[in-house]
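Project channel, design review

CF: Before we commit to the Actinomadura craniellae constructs, I'd like one complete example in the thread so the newer folks can see what an input/output pair looks like. Taking Aspartokinase.
RD: sounds good, go ahead.
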Amino acid sequence: MALVVQKYGGSSVADAEGVKRVAQRIVATKKAGNDVVVVVSAMGDTTDELIDLAEQVSPLPPGRELDMLLTAGERISMALLAMAIANLGHEARSFTGSQAGVITDGSHGKARIIDVTPGRIRSALDEGAIAIVAGFQGVSQNSKDITTLGRGGSDTTAVALAAALSADVCEIYTDVDGVFTADPRIVPTARQIPRISYEEMLEMAACGAKILHLRCVEYARRYAIPIHVRSSFSQREGTRVIESIEGTDMEQAIISGVAHDRSEAKITVVGVPDKVGEAATIFTVLADAEINLDMIVQNVSAASTGRTDISFTLPATDGQTAMSALNKVKERIGFESLRYDDRIGKVSLIGAGMRSHPGVTAKFFSAIAEAGVNIEMISTSEIRISVVVDGDDVDAAVASAHRAFDLDAEQVEAVVYGGTGR
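CF: and here is what came back for Aspartokinase:
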């Protein structure tokens, strides 16, 4: 008997028919002799609708109350799913994040999991029931307030529960048949990847591939939890995210895929005095504002002025917070001005094989140039090359890079069953 944790995204339970279809899949897994724990997201676009409703009531809703509101979405879907399973003759018990023992810090809207104490989940399994857990939420260790984990938090909930329960596998069900070499909505000829390492999946998630949340993959790698990404709309095998085993794939592809991200903005701090400590001051201010940065570029200082420009990218949702924090220290640092651009996109080439293949960078940049796209910023790691381009040029850059590295399938493999990719 195996212990299987399954997570179903909002598109999988978007309506009553979807809930019943998911219930049948869960019961089939139970009938196969497995213990089953299910993590479920809010139905369809419920979370977005609740956010819109909150903003109509208050332009700046308190974080505590917004979390209380948003967690209602998952509570609805978990209860309906438990009812649907009961209708198929099996016992299911639904649990909120706090009831499931998901303990977090007190940061509303983007809480981090501190511990998982799944005593009630284990008891339900021991009594033969299927446990249904509301994803995306937990309870603060100190204040005991309800918290949410941020976008994609249900993925993280599922992997955290899998780790705490020593599950055999964590299955992430979405509306596409696994991880592809590019977003099928942009590149219809993208190929499905049967197996991918945690390392490559981390880079893809960090670079905008929405199939798995970054924190989910980090958690899985830390606790060696195998992830199986599949579609809840089909019976196809999907993609397995596993520990990289050197030397097993003699013909491993150089490039795993091309990812893109339109959710970032760029800030340029113009005319920073080229003195020791100025950059440290800028990034300390941003760190104090709890803003995560991505790509950072500093120009060579002009000899005539002794000043330089520093550019960096960050989540667009944090853009105004960052601008406000920097403006408060403008006189102390002595920079001239700030420039803000939220019409950018990041395009990334990812592949563990590139570390031993020269010429990858040249081919990537040539493909971007052939698409007529100008590069604004460049960032690299051992298995990734990322560029920032104009937001309107993202699709062309992705398609050109995908084609240049022979990633196109001979026929269309990707089917987007739902509407969101989550």
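RD: helpful, thanks. The mean pLDDT is 91.
CF: Residues 3-174 form a domain with the Carbamate kinase fold (CATH 3.40.1160.10).
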